[in-house]
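Good morning,

Attaching, inline, the backbone tokens for the sequence recovery test we're adding to the shared suite. The designed sequence is right after.
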């Protein structure tokens, strides 16, 4: 297939994915409404009907689960192979010094910007001070299922704490067992190993000619695998979205909580929108002179997959494929910057953690001083770096932020029932931030090398 026909078919696929998402959301809203109309709540018939509908949405979820599994299956081999072939393609791991520095600086700087934007929005809009129905809010906080979930998250966090996160970040880089890390999809140690291993290969010359070729060819085969899986994306994404949205629409807790914390949700989504439609595009344009909105369209499949899976890690194969084949970012930037970004760069998560912490403080009537808000900013940044690229990981690391400023952890229950939805928006922003990083790093490779790639 030629490059332009590749891009065209990619465009069609993006359209199909959009259709799938719209259809899935419509099904999840209208099927419960139509299916339950005419039945009175509380009656046996209503309950039976509701159970049947839940069963249908569960069956649809099954298809989504399979799609998600296949995507996740590709992540570890793809990261290892792409990082290695990226280094091998350059011929010397030392050439990664400058691009690596640019990538880490960009990722850190944009995360900090996102946190400050979140802080500004939440202080301006004051969603926690609005007329929240206190009795209903307290009922959500007392809800046993919510309390149980927070307890689980708490146990994970209490082993760490704020200082623990820094220590954990250090430990996250190294592993005592590569296979263990691969099994847990811990990407950071795999990236480090791949960098060093491929770096050594470049020094061994002819003796490692075959393995060098194998890595490069296997990497190409993996990308073809990703394209094959993406052919099923519209169906997989339909099942993922319809299954989850349908389940939640049938659950009173979600609808009621959404009404209760509407302004909080608007603050988070508004902040995410500004970060992804103004801040990141501006930085991208200033540094690369690329049309940022075209870039968003080119990365469409990846952004929609992020929205559907709520996992930047599972989306990584699609992000890499889109960045190279559709957005024309050089292979070598994509090969090592995107795996790194999917692991450490989470602008959306950082913004949301800062908003959530201040929202809870506002709800409790606690005025956080400027110094305390700075503590929120620092811990939210660290917490986002430490969060895994999996669904609702931000909820766990957010407890560190709440702990740091002495807010009661059980009040996280207020935002728990709507988190599955907000997670989709922040994951999309996380992935877009990763992609911008790859496009920007492209500029920091020596000019001759840019010309020879893509
Ligand atoms: N789901 C997010 C991601 O995968 C992490 C989070 O904020 O929960 O990027």
């Amino acid at each position: 297939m030629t490059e332009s026909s590749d891009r065209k078919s990619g465009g069609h696929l993006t359209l199909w994915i959009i259709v799938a998402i719209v259809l899935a959301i419509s099904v999840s809203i209208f099927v419960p409404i139509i299916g339950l109309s005419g039945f009175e709540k509380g009656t046996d018939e209503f309950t039976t009907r509701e159970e049947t509908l839940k069963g249908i949405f569960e069956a649809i979820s099954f298809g989504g689960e399979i799609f998600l599994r296949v995507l996740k299956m590709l992540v570890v081999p793809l990261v290892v192979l792409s990082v290695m072939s990226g280094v091998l393609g350059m011929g010397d791991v030392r050439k990664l010094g400058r691009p690596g520095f640019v990538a880490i600086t960009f990722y850190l700087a944009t995360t900090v910007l996102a946190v400050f934007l979140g802080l500004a929005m939440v202080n301006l809009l004051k969603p926690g001070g609005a007329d929240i129905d206190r009795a209903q809010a307290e009922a959500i906080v007392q809800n046993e299922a919510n309390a149980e979930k927070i307890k689980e998250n708490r146990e994970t966090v209490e082993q760490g704490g704020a200082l623990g996160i820094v220590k954990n970040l250090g430990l996250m880089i190294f592993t005592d067992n590569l296979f263990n890390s691969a099994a847990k999809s811990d990407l950071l140690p795999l990236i480090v190993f791949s960098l060093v291993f491929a770096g050594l290969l470049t020094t061994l010359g002819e003796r490692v000619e075959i393995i060098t070729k194998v890595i490069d060819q296997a990497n190409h085969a993996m990308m073809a695998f990703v394209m094959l899986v993406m052919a099923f994306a519209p169906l997989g994404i339909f099942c993922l979205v319809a299954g989850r949205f349908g389940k939640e629409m049938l659950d009173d807790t979600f609808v009621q909580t959404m009404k209760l914390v509407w302004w909080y949700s608007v603050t988070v989504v508004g902040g995410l929108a500004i970060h992804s439609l103004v801040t990141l595009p501006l930085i991208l344009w200033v540094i690369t002179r690329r049309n940022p909105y075209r870039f968003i369209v080119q990365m469409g499949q990846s952004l929609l997959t992020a929205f559907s899976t709520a996992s930047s890690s599972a989306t990584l194969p699609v992000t890499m494929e889109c960045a190279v084949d559709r957005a024309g970012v050089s292979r070598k930037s994509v090969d090592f910057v995107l795996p790194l970004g999917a692991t450490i760069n989470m602008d959306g998560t950082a913004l949301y953690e800062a908003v959530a912490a201040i929202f809870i403080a506002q709800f409790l009537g606690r005025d956080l001083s400027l110094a305390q808000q700075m503590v929120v900013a620092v811990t939210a940044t660290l917490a986002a770096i430490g969060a895994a690229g999996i669904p609702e990981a931000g909820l766990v690391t957010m407890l560190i932020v709440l702990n740091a400023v002495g807010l009661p952890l059980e009040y996280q229950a207020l935002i728990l029932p709507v988190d599955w939805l907000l997670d989709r928006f922040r994951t999309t922003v996380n992935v877009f931030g990763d992609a911008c990083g790859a496009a920007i790093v492209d500029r920091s490779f020596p000019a001759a090398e840019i010309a020879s790639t893509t």
